[in-house]
Amino acid sequence: MQALRARRDNEAVRRALERLKQAAAMTPEEGRDGKISAANTMPYILDAVRAYATVARSVRRCERFYGSYVESSIT
Predict the structure, then answer these.
(1) In 3D, which of 41, 47, 31, 35 has the Cα closest to residue 62?
(2) Distance CA 28, CA 50 (A)
(3) Would you state the torsion angle of the CA atoms of residues 49, 26, 57, 53, taken in this order, to the nearest 10 degrees?
(4) Residue 60's CB: how many other CB atoms inside 10 A?
(5) How far is CA 22 from CA 4, 16, 17, 46, 74, in A?
(6) pLDDT of res. 30
(7) What pLDDT is stored for residue 36 in this prediction?
């Protein structure tokens, strides 16, 4: 992980994660003119992955807006 962090473009990671956070903060709405809603986070997640952002950092950007899943046990 240290080697990856040393060679990746950390500024690109920061920008990708910021765009992901902005998309997660939007209220989903139907796309206009056949376009996907700007609140669709998948393109921003893919950009973060391509910039070599970690999954944990990507998830933390979204948790603030979506919460986190906690499985309940059924006994």
Answers:
(1) 41
(2) 24
(3) 20
(4) 13
(5) 25, 10, 9, 15, 36
(6) 64
(7) 64
Overall residue count recorded for the chain in this entry: 75
Using one digit for the tens of pLDDT, what is the confidence trace for 6-64? 899 999 999 999 999 999 898 777 666 766 666 789 999 999 999 999 999 999 988 98
30, 37 in Cβ contact below 8 A? yes
CA–CA distance, 50 with 25 (Å, rounded to integer)? 21
Q: SS in 3 state form for 19-58?
A: HHHHHHHCCCCCCCCCCCCCCCCHHHHHHHHHCCCCHHHH
Structure letter (DSSP) for residue 8: S
pLDDT for res 15: 96
Enter the tokens of residue 54: 């970690």
